[in-house]
DNA sequence: ATCATATGTTGCAGTCAACAACAAATCTTG
DNA sequence: CAAGATTTGTTGTTGACTGCAACATATGAT
């Protein structure tokens, strides 16, 4: 495999073509010519290459209504390159086999009932992981080079998950954190494609955040939002620190608790309303520090933070306004994700495809 | 200028050769062959190209002591490509004309005495900026696309510095923030080349920080460290917020004040010692939030923070330890910069060279 | 039905990097 | 000190790739 020379040029162009189709869906050869800035003949040669290897499928053009010869439609063949995506939660493991172009080919889910998620992987994936080009697992926590350094949610510290998964399935795995995966998912298949610096907040048993710049996860872009210290010397946290956001937030738990609290607050329960407000303020203050440090242009509230934000956006916004400079605030959009529960799984798959396409270059 | 094709391949390789020499200094053709993974004949052709355009100079090989024909030494011609670097401070403007390879060809400095720094630019640079391929100005503050959105130090808000400099000098300028520039400088010409995620803290009249990942400045990587809120509802800050680090730190000012305080503390002044300690704690807490949000592997204390850190590292470290997860802390090195006062100027020049080399591709 | 328009196809030319054979310059060894 | 070993620069050749232009093809407009 030459690292230089004209063959690399070909590989780069081939990869660019596959990436274009994977990201933007089926396109005509004419559109591809425009998008990649290559000659018609070059596109033709590349497409012929990739059709032969089975990655692409060409359909004879149907009339577009305008004059001229109709252009051939090119589309990905999903089964030609697949990625295994797994999302690990406290109580369950979810799996999807995703094909080139983003189509979900298989899907499964299993309750854990206290079992170790790694032990459930083979059953959930049904061996499908073996044929996939990449396998990616999303876990809520601080991930560094395949190792889960810290996870409030799973209660892990320093677990080499990549190695464990490899041992259990006989293949290499990539490990990413849930929030970063979800950020990638929302950017690539959601509604956040315009964002150049996207911050995704994930509320599970712990609070994590993920930063995606220009659609790509950063080296170590996994942020332990729940362990931003908002109250120095405050309540003791499970991580050993004091005054972490997770330890200080009054409303804390799963989405069901949030729903109960919002319901109670809506029915005039003053204590519930105050609790929600103070939680929103704590979150806003922690966010202020993260925004000052990272300067995102969009924040998405995922997991149960979605419910918190929808029910109590005002205190979040005002606490944020009190802790960030006007310029950082003014270009900031606050929203909720559009992929719902699927974001992390889809993002994990997209992380895998990024590796697949990089590997083609 | 074609964006694809075999000519681009040549351009990329040419740029890679120049980058290699610029960053690692003079090298033999044999070393270049190894470093770039290209064939001997290709290196020869590229070097011949660049020698003809005047970018490179080849010296007939001198014996290395080992067997074989001595390899030709290739080095940059500094004057072949120059970058104008300017550092703007409250009280003065500093200028350097830097040549390819990193050699400083000219240097000048001017006190401002209250004048607008832009008005002093033409005099300080002596018109040298005109011939340079790139011109870069470093300013302490929050910079976004040529605009200084906020600068405690200069008292600017929303000033389009790139446009002002262009109007004053008749050429395009790039604007970066001082801390990020210094981070780039320390990474490329200092002692922080091993760091993959380098956080540089700059103490001037305001406190700013810059993040450099794999040697490159991030989009909007300029961090207003001084406006991390460490005391919600605390003292009013000039930026309009309350409880900013800048407003809360007891020892705050120029390096001279720090020196005075450390001197007093050393002579047993309990008040000075307490003030230093509390300032170190405040700084450590703000840093904790930034570290949790960005996950650097190295932190450099620049400007007068250097003095503060050297005299009172313990409270900074312990406050940091109380506000960051063990895993983030364990891989973190705290140090002081090696380029001293020059970091930002050198880094601004390197930012310019990055653009020059990117432009060759 | 003919022309205009847009696109796929084919053959050709220009460029590039790798390769191999050769030349050059140094060290090593007898 | 001379011949061989070793390393590197040089040159001519080769295979590959992309762009270009001319031609073929398929549709809409007149």
From TrEMBL, chains A, B:
Q: Which domain of life is it from?
A: Bacteria
The signal peptide stretch is none
TM segment ranges: none
Q: Show the InterPro entries listed in the entry.
A: ATPase_NBD, ROK, WH-like_DNA-bd_sf, WH_DNA-bd_sf
Query: Which family does the record claim for this protein?
Result: Belongs to the ROK (NagC/XylR) family.
Q: What is this protein called?
A: ROK family protein
Q: Which organism is it from?
A: Glycomyces albidus
